[in-house]
Amino acid sequence: MSLYFRVCIPIALGLLFSALTACSEAGLPTDPYSHLRDTSTLADTPSARADTPPAVADTEDSKTIEPIDESPPSWPADATIKALVVTDMNVILQWSAATDPSGIRSYQLYLDDAEHQSYDSDTRLAAIESLEPNTTYTVRVEATDMLSNQSSSGPTIEITTTKAPSEALPESITLVPVSVTSTSVDLAWDTGDLATPILQWTLWQDTKAILNVPDGAEKTATIGSLTPGATYLFQLSATTLDMDYFPGADLVVSLPSASLIFPENAEIQAATVGETALQLDWPDCLLGDATYTVAWSHLDEPVGAATSDVSEYTIDGLTPWTDYDIAVTAETADGVQSLPLVATLKTADTTPPTWEAEAALELTMSGTGSAELSWTAASDNAAVTSYVVFRNGAELSSLPADETIYNAIGLSEGAGYLFTVQAVDGAGNTTTDGPSSFIELSDGTGPAWAEDAALLVDGVTQTTATLSWSLPTDVSPIQSLNLSIDGVTTLTLASDTVSVELDSLQPETTYTCLLTATDVFGNVSDSLTATVTTLGANMPSWPTDATVSVSDIDTTSAKLIWSLPNSDVATTSYTVLLNDIVVAEESLGTETTTLEDLLPETSYTVRVEAKSATGTLSSNGPTTTFMTLPDGPPEWSPTAALVAVPSGETALALSWFDTPDNIASLKIMLNGELQATIDASQTTHIIDNLVPGTTYTLSIEAIGSTGLVSTNGPSVTATTGDETAPIFPPAETCTVSAITASEAELQWPAATDTVGVTDYRIERQSGEILLAATGGAQTATLQNLEPETAYDIVVRARDAAGNWSSSGPSASFTTEPVQSIVSTGGVYNALEPHCGGCHFNEFVTKEAFVATFVSDPTVISPGNASGSKLIQYLEGTYEDPAGGYSQMPPFAQSYAQLVASGTATLPISIIKAWVEAL
Q: Global pTM?
């Protein structure tokens, strides 16, 4: 048993027994509504007598009597009897209510199946005393109705009383104060001459257990966070090994008042923050001369303490980049202390980590294309927090400080890699001299040509030709290019060579050319192959810069024009080939032709060759490729989309994708009107100068190379943002009229907004909302106001985007004194349907209502509505000392909620006004 039960429960039981005895002697019930009954009045009322059945209806014309009730009371399925308090000799019980058509007359309590005591029907709380300690009892409760029918299935409980306490602690065991400040007490005790083995000591503060101390531990305790100037009761108890208790050893301590105080919002400041020192200062105390005690700790462990006669102090010898808890307490010469100022401050760290002179980065191949890196740890004046691995100067990964191994993957054959590791501390200081290591991987693969790579032939004459190519790629550097001609002559070229001119060739001769590449490891690529056939003696030829150009391209036609061939062999005419098919012959001097009957949107390759008088054609005429125009406007794919999002209040940001191919430009439309024509390569556009909070329809179309415009471009609807709250005209006020004790009529000017005002609300200047929203109306009626109360109000406006104005028209007014607008009969008629079910005697007539409620000052205090229990019960705020009901009627909804739902018709404000006017 705790000391609380030994000290407080007997007091509580005594008070309960006294209250029950007093109620019994006075003939008073003890139900939660007994505060609202006048039993002396009810004693003379026939309906209150136990031997008279309650009336079902009583009018001037007829009376109806219920039939005789022969059934016993019934208990709900979840009926219980609960033990609220159990001690060594006493218990306090509470049970559920039984029901019966004729009403419950009394409850009978049975102790171990023997009648113990009978209780009034309104009493469901009982105390049983003088029991035996550490004993089990069975308690049952039964109900008896108005016609003496008794139940037989009432709820049952089995109770075991606690063990009896041992004698109090010997007087030699005392609880003594070692130190007392304005906010703390240090206590100590010893075992004295107590011979019984002790399990633990329990310390109590104002009858509440606050600390358990094992018997072998130091028998001291520090109690802090106390209130200066307050008085506290401390008590000590002992628990034996067999769980007996020894209560006793009381101590009353009065704390001194703290006469020294710091200014409001005073703080400890760090004037200078170093790596190992903190220079502190704080405001002087407002009262008296003081000595300051500065204490600092880390992770709840004290580190140091010092005193200072002035309000500043420098703490040194600290650890860099570490949090310290600082406490400064002022103390007068007579030992009175202030409440401490506290702060948590961190020391600085400007020194990066350091590496040992022999620190190294070890590289070991851990698999194909991967290497394991390991290094020795760096050190720091505070602590290393991470390592950063770099590869060829670029950051590769960051690792926590406890990891000094990293596996680098994705390494390529033939490539060289320089790895470096740097250390980082908690302040972000990073080393620049971390260890590094270089690794180069071997390469067993030769250079590779692009998939479309080719050895191209150009500028062929009787004795010369030009070869060109694109360069191959390799994981390691390319050493050289090798050109073989007919397998006899081999030219070694630089690795960056992309063309070569062959000379001293024989006329009308065919040569086979092979090109390969070799890397630095000697790996050789596949070969590119080309055949060169030199021109004959009578074959026309073209200069290397000869050209053929295409113009006037349409969907089915195009115009060609070309330059002149060489003059070494006489040219008589030109042959035009389209996709290697002869399509035209033109005479010398006519270096142009028009191609017709082409297909729309089709690629063509055209070549022009010169013909000699003997009919021999050149073989190196100029060539070019072109595409005819599409037939019709561009078409957007079904997946194309246009997206628009607000960009501030006056702009929309557009983006789109899946634009048609081969178009010239794009058209942006806003509400069907052309907004902008932009380049075909763009995929975003911003439209500005729009109206805030406005919805727009946007679309996009493509313009083809022929000028035709698409008709199926994507569209979207979007609304600009609204970030501006409504505003009221300057110097406008709110007009207040028709002021009563609980209501006031308001009228205010309209607010304006960039989009539109949707709502108004009424607030007090304190921020309390009196009326949540009025829509767009500019008038409102405030209701349920407090009488004779000053109100300072302001009107605020909201737009559709939810922006509330920061200010608005205001007004000040005071409500009128309460004047009752309802009679006593009106209050009776309004409350009887909701409260008469429980208080059927009090509401049987208006006269009974006046006698039991209106005339009872414990129920209604005339002129003091908020202090009347009737109003508190109706509002659901009554605090019953006996733990009973807090509202009337005692159901799920309070009377105030019934009024709000329309079930009850008379507002509480009117009933309060009636009480104030009594």
A: 0.31
Helix or strand run (H / E) with residue 136 = strand 136-145
Q: Which residue has the higher pLDDT, 256 or 750?
A: 750
Encoded tokens for 16: 């309960």
For residue 9, the model assigns a pLDDT of 45
pLDDT tens-digit map of 249-258: 788 888 877 6
Over range 447-464, report the average pLDDT. 89
Alpha carbon 320 to its chain's center? 34
pLDDT, residue 898, reads 85
Do residues 534 and 460 lie in contact, with contact meaning Cβ atoms separated by under 8 Å? yes
Q: Which residue has the tokens 């000590």?
A: 236
Give the integer Cα–Cα distance in Å for 831 and 837: 10
Query: Distance between CA 511 and CA 532 in Å, rounded?
Result: 5
Cα distances (Å, whole numbers) of residue 580 to 199, 594, 605, 625: 111, 17, 8, 12
Burial class of residue 59 in the structure, from the number of CB atoms within 10 Å of its CB (0-12 exposed, 13-18 middle, 19+ buried): exposed
For 841, residues 6+ apart whose C-beta sits below 8 A from its C-beta are: 37, 42, 45, 47, 48, 848, 852
Average pLDDT, the chain: 85
Query: What is the per-residue DSSP string for 601-664?
Result: T-EEEEEEEEEETT-PBPS---EEEEEPPPSSS----TT-EEEEEE-SSS-EEEEEE-PPSSEE
Tell me 851's DSSP state: I
**What are the distances in angstroms from CA 667 to CA 652, 679, 697, 713?**
16, 9, 14, 10
Query: Nearest-CA neighbor of 224 among 179, 290, 176?
Result: 179
> What count of Cα atoms within 13 Å lies in the side-chain half-sphere of residue 204?
21
Cβ–Cβ < 8 Å for 576, 586: yes
Q: What is the pLDDT of residues 220-236, one digit of tens each?
A: 999 988 888 789 999 88
- Taking each helix axis from N to C end, the angle separating 908-917 and 824-835, rounded to the nearest 10 degrees, works out to 140
**Which amino acid is located at 171 in the chain?**
E
Specify which residues 313 forms β-bridges with. Answer: 280
**529-533, 573-577, 900-904: segment of lowest average pLDDT:** 900-904
Residues recorded for the chain: 918
Q: How far apart are CA 532 and CA 465, in angstroms?
A: 7
Q: Give CA–CA dist 423/356, Å, rounded.
A: 12
Distance CA 796, CA 91 (A): 60
Distances (CA, A) of 196 to 3, 199, 200, 235, 827: 18, 10, 12, 19, 69
pLDDT at 60 over 50: no
Q: Which residue has the tokens 């024509």?
A: 677
DSSP-assigned beta bridge partners for residue 400: 386
Please write down the HEC assignment for all residues of 471-488.
Answer: CCECCCCEEEEEEEECCC
